[in-house]
Amino acid sequence: MLTDERKNHLLKKLQRSGRLVAKDESRNLGLSEDTIRRDLREMAAGGKLKRVHGGAVPISQDALTYPQRLPVASPEKIRIGERAAGLIEPGQVVFIDGGTTARQMARHLPLDLSATIITHSPSIAMELLAHENLTVELIGGRLFRHSVIAMGAEAMHQLDRTLPDACFIGVTGAHPEHGLTTGDSEEAQMKHRIIERSGESTILLSPEKICAVSPYRVAEWPLIDRIVTHDLPNDFRQGLAAHQCEILDVG
Amino acid sequence: MLTDERKNHLLKKLQRSGRLVAKDESRNLGLSEDTIRRDLREMAAGGKLKRVHGGAVPISQDALTYPQRLPVASPEKIRIGERAAGLIEPGQVVFIDGGTTARQMARHLPLDLSATIITHSPSIAMELLAHENLTVELIGGRLFRHSVIAMGAEAMHQLDRTLPDACFIGVTGAHPEHGLTTGDSEEAQMKHRIIERSGESTILLSPEKICAVSPYRVAEWPLIDRIVTHDLPNDFRQGLAAHQCEILDVG
DNA sequence: AAATAACGTGCAACTTCGTGCAACGTCAAG
DNA sequence: CTTGACGTTGCACGAAGTTGCACGTTATTT
Predict the structure, then answer these.
(1) Which of A75, A72, A87, A82 is nearest to A104 (CA)?
(2) 8-state DSSP, B138
(3) Which residues contact A230 (CB under 8 A, 6 or more apart)?
(4) What is the rounded distance in angstroms from the CA atom of residue B54 to the CA atom of residue B187?
(5) What are the residues whose beta carbons fall under 8 Å from the beta carbon of A248, sequence distance 6 or more?
(6) For B140-163, how does the pLDDT look when each residue is reduced to its tens digit (9 = 90+)?
(7) Most-buried pick from A37, A66, B19, B20 (CB within 10 A)?
């Protein structure tokens, strides 16, 4: 067996089992411990692993101990959220969708705002705990991990008992011709229903979604009253000109 | 087992459980107490933990910059949550209440547990996002800030469509004579309803609630199958002796 | 105040480590 | 074909690390 081959084998085994014992490997490979130790030493020098007495462990195992990380929002999403937060009038009943941009919106709502927020996102609900004057109506249902929102029949059922003044919806695709789309069938239906039931519908459109098309249709442009976005291209604007859709560009 | 590996193991266990007992760990790992003490001493010197007589505790929370403001849970609550988490059987449909102790319970559920969790707490739902094999059913309704749970008619309505195998409920008062109580009328009704509808009812009883009495009654002892608590006084035990209520004391 | 448990230190047995060195195979130049 | 440079491997041996025990000290409990 070639030296490089052996090193690769060791590295793979380390990643698989989380540790290496020099003695065991020497027996497995039919080589002396010295050889294994040499390999480990060299790989440790190359930063591939961490050498410890008796064998080796993966590097920076400490870094893995904090499993919870807050997803970082791009500056554009933050500014879109900030702008959208200012659109809510006191006293309104407003639906806020899940997703990172909507979360930024929730985070930027004035602390003393007096209104009712309906949401099917537990993470949005958590963001609003500090707002004393907000009434938060949580939509229940089966939790969809990817978007961190409640969905399914139960959610639809509960949603159908609401009639918000306005809604703020995120999508994964917005195209002048193909309209608004998202990556999950049921999610698309739910967003559509919310838009249907809301007096005024606003789309939160982060830059990477512009001109993208996802598999499932949420709504066509005529249903949308407003989009909040960042650096919207001119041809996109012209494509929307026919519809009465207000464009708020924070770019 | 490699020394480094052992230290990591101890550190992880400390972070999960909130405390370490040198004697227990020496027995668990099949090593002498001296070895464990040496490890703890070295990690304490490295600032990884705080050494105390008998074992170790985490570094004061202020030093750690957690991404999310984590409510400080007492070691007792952590251990009660840890114990309760082990009571869920694979495949069960289980209701988990809101509150800090319940949150610790959610946090200590095995990552690969396959079950269905029903909860009216968005914070519990958020804790369970990483558990791939869990189905999470979120109960919606009006968000009650104090306990971070959904309540009201909508929540009751949705709750009445569930029939959990078991429920885990927190209360703010537990008294041998006056039973289980809490500080909000509607919350009390809701907890009662959950207990009624669940096959097996477990109360999460953190020490400061023992022998306390709050204004609104949740349930009498006969409805309760089990309590998980910490250092339950003997007179309390005797008061419960008449009822068939299992007592799990993690003290 | 006495009893008990936990602690730290020194020490001995054992394991693992690193280094120097010799043996062996490969390969290319002579 | 021979030879020498080079890399790899295994062994020997002193150094360093790890572990458990003994013993005197300190902290906690009763």
Answers:
(1) A82
(2) E
(3) A76, A79, A80, A205, A206, A207, A249, A250, A251
(4) 40
(5) A83, A226, A227, A228, A229
(6) 999 998 889 999 999 999 999 999
(7) B20
CA distance A123 to A73: 14
CB contact under 8 A, A148 and B126: yes
CB contact under 8 A, A140 and B145: no
- Print the SS3 string covering A187-241: HHHHHHHHHHHCCEEEEEECHHHECCCCCEEEECHHHCCEEEECCCCHHHHHHHC
- Chain D positions under 7 Å from a protein CB? 7-12, 17-22, 27-28
B32 touches strand D (CB under 7 A): yes
What is the tens place of the pLDDT at every residue in A168-226?
Answer: 999 999 999 899 999 999 999 999 999 999 999 999 999 999 999 999 999 999 999 99
Q: Are the C-beta atoms of residues A146 and A172 closer than 8 Å to each other?
A: no
Kindly provide the residue ranges of all beta strands, DSSP E only, lying in chain B, ordered along the sequence.
20-21, 50-52, 55-57, 93-96, 115-119, 134-138, 141-144, 149-151, 166-170, 173-175, 179-182, 200-205, 216-219, 226-229, 246-249
Q: In this structure, which amino acid lies at residue A181?
A: T
**Residue that the structure tokens 């009654």 belong to:** B217
Write out the H or E segment, with its range, that includes residue A123. Answer: helix A122-127
- Rg of chain A in Å (alpha carbons): 26
Rounded Cα–Cα distance for residues A52 and B139 (Å): 49
End-to-end Cα spacing for chain B: 29
Tell me how far apart the alpha carbons of residues A98 and A134 are, in angstroms, rounded to a whole number. 18
* Listed residue (A13, A30, A19) closest to A53, CA to CA: A19
Q: Specify the residue for token string 């497995």.
A: A28
Given a cut of 80, whether residue A167 has pLDDT beyond it is: yes
Q: Is A185 in a helix, a strand, or coil?
A: helix
Q: Is the CB of B35 under 7 A from strand D?
A: yes
Contact B175, B211 (CB under 8 A): yes
Phi, psi dihedrals of residue B247, rounded to the nearest 5°: -115, 120
Nucleotide nearest to B2 (CA to C1'): D18
| CB pair distance less than 8 Å for B122 and A138 | yes
Query: Can you give the pLDDT at residue B64?
Result: 40
Task: Using a pLDDT cut of 90, give the percent of chain A over it.
Answer: 70
The C-alpha atoms of residue A216 and residue A185 are separated, in whole angstroms, by 6
> What pTM does this model have?
0.77
Size of chain B in residues: 251
Axis crossing angle, helix B3-17 with helix B22-29, rounded to the nearest 10:
130
